[in-house]
Amino acid sequence: MESNDVERLQDGLLQNECSEMYTGDGSVDINGNPVLKQTTGNWKACPFILGNECCERLAYYGISSNLVTYLTKKLHQENVSAARNVTTWQGTCYLTPLVGAVIADSYWGRYWTIAAFSTIYFIGMCTLTLSASLPALKPIECVGSLCPSATPA
């Protein structure tokens, strides 16, 4: 065997060895370097994602089942406007994952997209809880049959 053949064989072996170390699907880390198979994937983020999804679904269905009652009884909205607001809220909840999918696939990755949108969801839940709990954020109570509507603020 000539020395050129030996060099090509060694280069081929090194290339195969390197290709087995990396994911091979074009994945890059936060610095733009190819991702090592040993440090990516697996089940590291799975408990966070599953736990987050469980909590989100519980919160969503808890709110959606009571939101019309809250809007009509506590915020003194008419049935039509309360139903419209709930439908708008539900539609937004079901369409925003499409935006999240584009962001996750193109920019941030699955973990950071879920973390960012979970934070936004949590802030919204806290705001809703505060609006139902703090007396300063509640509308004026009904006096007899006179129920003033809540202000937009």
From TrEMBL:
GO terms for molecular function: transmembrane transporter activity. GO terms for cellular component: membrane. It comes from the Eukaryota. Coiled coil: none annotated. GO terms for biological process: oligopeptide transport. This is Protein NRT1/ PTR FAMILY 8.3-like. It comes from Quillaja saponaria.
